[in-house]
Every structure is written in structure tokens, then in C-alpha cells.
Write a structure and sequence with these properties.
single chain, alpha/beta, Arginase, Chain A, 5-stranded parallel beta sheet
């Protein structure tokens, strides 16, 4: 549902062809943890479907909407071949560098670790291009880390700061932008504070994830950051992930079985 709503929310552009990656609806009964990853085969096959679309149409720029954070894997890896001097701005409350060995099975938490060349061997085999380097990444909105996440980032040499009391400055962002010819921007909805935006994972108190907290960013701050990035005219890849329209889903469930709406 999130992806379908986003197609209506984003500006319409007839010059941008759109393609849907067919995804089976989630089902805990059908999908199980396989070698440390929930729905391992589906994660792999869905990534390959996205890669097939990219290989067939060979776009120069890619906007990806809907799904979990893992949707950035195929497009960011693909664009890495087109733009060698390419930086990643990761707007997210979480580092997304976990691996199955960390005892959290959901692949959305693995995506950036995979793009950096670390993690599960089968997921790494999906990469078509070389991994990104530690200095090609800027986190914005990052919140508190688990010890294994901190260990990964420190060992990998990723420069980062926990932004629970203040975000990356404009000067830091501009300095990062200036280092690259092109940019990839990953926007995880959960970077936003539930006080400012309710269609995020952490607005549902029954969802606990890996125990991490939600983001602290306001919509105004997000708009400011995206404006700075937009002015650079360097964005070639943009992903919106983890959009969870809970209220719209409740309405859908409410109305789905009424005969008077179907006849």
C-alpha cells in the first residue's frame, strides 16, 4: 500500500517511466527464517527482479519508492557502475549494517552493510559492481547504536556521529556534496519523529524491531536537507523506504468486505 500511495503523492512526470517490482504480500505463515534471514529466498528473488528491470531499460537515474530499506540495494549498486565518483547520503535513524550473525533476521537492516561489501555471502553475490567505500557515505539522522553496529562502523572506518541532540550541519553536508560528481539519497521514513509524522514504524507500539528507537527529525528539517541536496543538481538515485500508512490500511481493512461497495 505504501508504494501505491507514494505514486499519487509524488509529483507526476510523464518523462519518467515507472515499473513495478511484483512482490508477494508478507506472510509469517509462508515465510520463515532461512539461515538467519527472514524470507531469504524472497529477498533474493525480489532483488533480482529489480535488477532485471534496471538491466533491461538502462536508466541514467532511478527513483525507488515503497518497500523496506533493502530496496536501495539494486538501484544504488546499478548506479555505481554509471557514476564512479558517487556518494551516498543515508537519511535514517539506523545504520543498516547488521548481519545474520547479529541475531536480527530482517534484511532491511543489512542493506548498507552489503553495499559496503560486508555480511551474508549470498546477499553479497547479488552485487554487480564493486562495494562502496567508507568515505563515500554520510549518515543524517542517525540515532543510538547497538554495540555490534558501532563495532562494524568503527572497524570499517565509517565516519559518523549519533545525532540525538543535533543533526549534521549544513557545512558538513555541503562539504560532502562537493566531494562527488553524483549523489544517491536514501530516505527511510523512520528518520522522522513520530511527533511530526505518524506513518512510520515507530508509531505502532506493538512493533519492536531490533530494539532500536525511532528518529527525531521534523518535516521542516527534512525539507531543508532535501533542498540543499536538490540545489546541488547531483542526485541520480533516490529511495523512499519504510512508508507505513497505518491509518489508510485500517480504512482499507474496514471497507474491504462490504458488498455495497463491490456491486
Amino acid at each position: 500500500m505504501g508504494a501505491k500511495l507514494l505514486t499519487q503523492i509524488l509529483p507526476q512526470n510523464s518523462n519518467q517511466p515507472s515499473f513495478e517490482v511484483p512482490i508477494a504480500p508478507p506472510s509469517e505463515a509462508k515465510f520463515q527464517i532461512e539461515n538467519g534471514i527472514f524470507a531469504r529466498n524472497e529477498v533474493i528473488q525480489n532483488t533480482k527482479k529489480a535488477q532485471d528491470i534496471l538491466a533491461r531499460y538502462e536508466p541514467q537515474k532511478v527513483i525507488t519508492i515503497g518497500g523496506t530499506c533493502y530496496v536501495s540495494l539494486a538501484s544504488f549498486d546499478y548506479l555505481h557502475a554509471l557514476y564512479p565518483k558517487l556518494g551516498i547520503v543515508w537519511l535514517d535513524a539506523h545504520p543498516d549494517v547488521s548481519a545474520p550473525k547479529d541475531n536480527y533476521p530482517n534484511a532491511h537492516a543489512f542493506v548498507l552493510g552489503t553495499l559496503l561489501g560486508e555480511g551474508d555471502a549470498e546477499l553479497l553475490s547479488l552485487l554487480k559492481n564493486k562495494p562502496f567505500k567508507a568515505d563515500e557515505l554520510l549518515y543524517i539522522g542517525l540515532q543510538g547504536l547497538h554495540s555490534y553496529q558501532k563495532e562494524f562502523l568503527d572497524k570499517k572506518g565509517v565516519s559518523y556521529k549519533v545525532q540525538d541532540k543535533g543533526f549534521v550541519s549544513d557545512e558538513e553536508l555541503k562539504s560532502f556534496i562537493d566531494k562527488f560528481d553524483a549523489l544517491l539519497v536514501h530516505f527511510d521514513i523512520d528518520v522522522l519523529s513520530v511527533e511530526h509524522f505518524s506513518d512510520t514504524y515507530f508509531a505502532n507500539p506493538t512493533l519492536v524491531g531490533d530494539g532500536s528507537g525511532g528518529g527525531k527529525m521534523s518535516l521542516e528539517k527534512l525539507a531543508h536537507i532535501l533542498t540543499l541536496l536538490d540545489k546541488s543538481s547531483k542526485i541520480v538515485g533516490f529511495s523512499i523506504a519504510e512508508y507505513l500508512p497505518f491509518s489508510a490500511y485500517k480504512l482499507q481493512e474496514l471497507f474491504k468486505d462490504f458488498d455495497f461497495l463491490k456491486k
